[in-house]
Amino acid sequence: EVYFENLSKQKPKEVMEKNGNNHKLRVCVATCNRADYSKLAPIMFGIKAEPQFFELDVVVLGSHLIDDYGNTYRMIEQDDFDIHTRLHTIVRGEDEAAMVESVGLALVKLPDVLNRLKPDIMIVHGDRFDALALATSAALMNIRILHIEGGEVSGTIDDSIRHAITKLAHYHVCCTRSAEQHLIAMCEDHDRILLAGCPSYDKLLSAKNKDYMSIIHMWLGEDVKTRDYIVALQHPVTTDIKHSIKMFELTLDALISFNKRTLVLFPNVDAGDKEMVRVMRKKGIEHHPNFRAVKHVPFDQFIQLVAHAGCMIGNSSCGVREVGAFGTPVINLGTRQTGRETGENVLHVRDADTQDKILHALQLQFGKQYPCSKIYGDGNAVPRILKFLKSIDLKEPLQKKFCFPPVKDNISQDIDHILETQSALAVDLGGTNLRVAIVSMKGEIVKKYTQLNPKTYEDRLELILKMCVEAASEAVNLNCRILGVGISTGGRVNPREGIVLHSTKLIQEWSCVDLRTPISDVLHLPVWVDNDGNCAALAERKFGHGKGVENFVTLITGTGIGGGIIHQHELIHGSSFCAAELGHIVVSLDGPECLCGSQGCIEAYASGIALQREAKKLHDEDLLLVEGMAMKKEEVVGAAHLIQAAKLGNTKADNILRTAGTALGLGVVNILHTMNPSLVILSGVLASHYVHAVKDVINRQALSSAKTVDVVVSNLADPALLGAASLVLDYTTRRIY
User: Pfam families from the xrefs (predicted)?
Assistant: First the structure.
């Protein structure tokens, strides 16, 4: 909305002159099949909406014009686009030669069309053999090419075709950070690569709230309920047709055995597609009461069907890309999508000799609901692409330039007119305040929001959602791409499920709370949750003293005492998620009572609450204040007053701090003798007051082999927020699929 509002204020002539163009940009969009049209249509609508900048020509070819595949060119006409040219380019056949002949036929027919249209730029999508013919024709006729979805990795011949088109294309629009890095590694010009996200996500992320029951009933029957049916979409693998046919047979057998209503879509036009259709008919799928076999479903309706399905199964890229936006479970079969980035909703069945493996996968996946994933887009791709198109200077030399190694590592290479920062939404749930921040990949807090933490569960969750929505909206204006939400909270947390199991006494009504589901449902983002001590350790590992250190421990010294343990570069959670409860290491059998109910815990000696307790005792006995100190009547006695009194020579206050430091030091010695870390990081407001006492205790009490440990004070200003952010940033940047 902001983009289009700003754009409306610009004069078309000024924009064209700025980019060296003295006429509207003539854009030719060529679409070959139902799948690529779903990606190209949002761009086409955007181009059509701005006639002051663009002229649009639509060319239709490939399976769009084949009756067996639903004559899908009609949906282009229904979208009110004028089709300039229809090219019949598919040579019917059942082997690889038919695909080669189809490419050749397209190459024969396209030059005449391009000579008549004379486009300034041609938009080509994806990795189909038809797209290769389009890119080859345009490149040889000196027409600039914009390639959508380059740089991605998948199985079969599609990989080779996609990368071949990349080398022919002059400009690239990619969907993921990994795809961008692949393009850079392929020596493409950094300034001609746009990380925009997938155009189809612009429609996906706004589609789920629409009326869907009538669509489900139309395609699957009046008796079908949401989450109680399956969508199946499987294509032949052209590099191993025989095996892919066998896999399809096993899939149908498993679906028949599973006995759920299933919508089966016909496969793409590829070598082996006719054999797959014969398998369907041999098994009676078209007449089976549990199956509905269709050639084509309009994209708007297909979105609703997969969004509310109990599961999607097959080897379509839609399963590993678009369906993740809804958290629908997916079973990806075979090798056709090998290498694709996927969300946690995807379960891979790489190979199967019987239907049992596929049937077991159906039993595991059907009916689940996963966090919504935005790996492939955030719903703002089309405005970025239109802005990119307007920036193209037709006076620049047509000849491509390649950027050969060395390639810059881990540095954003977004084009200079749309600099976006990979970021996370970080949430810190403290005993007093609730904070939300936008945190960049480099650990910079771009913007922070703070509110008092409500006392009830309902008010707290409502405020979290409100603050996260506000921050996510502001992130667009700040050119920050939000990768996910990380939450740091006190208490015991199950990070696998995103559930707070038991809270500290400082946060009320906060036990057995599922944080992941409601936040993910509202923001359509993946959500991670962990204990605040663990988050502090993660913050040190990514941004602080722990960076590159294999084994270290972080101790938080604040209102309570907590911490996290990093062992062999990984965070330790323990069998019941209560590892690193370092504040409850017992250092005295008859010490003061702790909030946990035990006695002699470190927290009972060295926490802010413990120091406040001792300060109040001194104050009640008129032994706290010394010369140079003053307190107002309404002022609450706290740990800060005890520290100030000790600095001004109050021996009783000093002794209390020494005892607290000794208790903390003994706890650290126990940690050294148990985990043997090479580094101990003291974090929190009391860290600087304890560091010397801890080192003294280590020198007196630790084994000689453990005394070499380094003890340092954290230099991070906000470890809780940075740790919550690192939950997101570490996961999204290093995950291997």
Answer: Epimerase_2, ROK
Looking at the structure of the chain, the number of domains it has is: 4
The angle subtended at Cα 566 by Cα 561 and Cα 568, nearest 5°, is 165
Q: What is the mean pLDDT of residues 457-480?
A: 91
601 is in an annotated binding site: yes
Q: Is residue 14 part of a domain?
A: no
Among 127, 273, 378, 532, the one annotated catalytic: 532
Report the alpha-carbon distance of residue 423 to residue 725 in Å, rounded: 8
Q: Are residues 480 and 556 in the same domain?
A: no
Do residues 216 and 266 share a domain? yes
> Do 232 and 360 fall into the same domain?
yes
Per residue in 179-230, pLDDT (tens digit) is 999 999 899 998 999 999 999 888 887 765 568 899 999 999 999 999 999 9
For residue 404, being part of any structural domain is answered with: no
Contact 4, 46 (CB under 8 A): no
State both tokens at 422: 């990979």
- 532: annotated binding-site residue? yes
Q: Establish whether 584 is an annotated binding residue.
A: yes
Domain assignment of residue 390, yes or no = no
Give the residue from 365, 380, 396 where a domain finishes.
365
Higher pLDDT, 335 or 363: 363
Whether 603 has a binding-site annotation, put simply, is: yes
Domain span holding position 354 = 205-365
| Most distant CA pair in the chain, distance | 99
Chain-centre distance of CA 287, in angstroms? 41
Same domain flag for 278 and 250: yes
556 and 520 within one domain = no
pLDDT, one tens digit per residue, over 221-243 is 999 999 999 999 999 888 788 88
Q: Say if residue 26 carries a ligand binding annotation.
A: no
Q: Does 576 lie in the same domain as 527? A: no
Q: Which 3 state secondary structure label does DSSP give 115?
A: helix
136 is an annotated ligand-binding site residue:
no
pLDDT of residue 637 exceeding 60: yes
497 and 439 share one domain: yes
* DSSP-derived secondary structure letter, 688: H
Q: Which two three-digit tokens encode residue 342?
A: 């996927």
414 as an active site residue: the answer is: no
Q: Is the pLDDT of residue 282 over 90?
A: yes
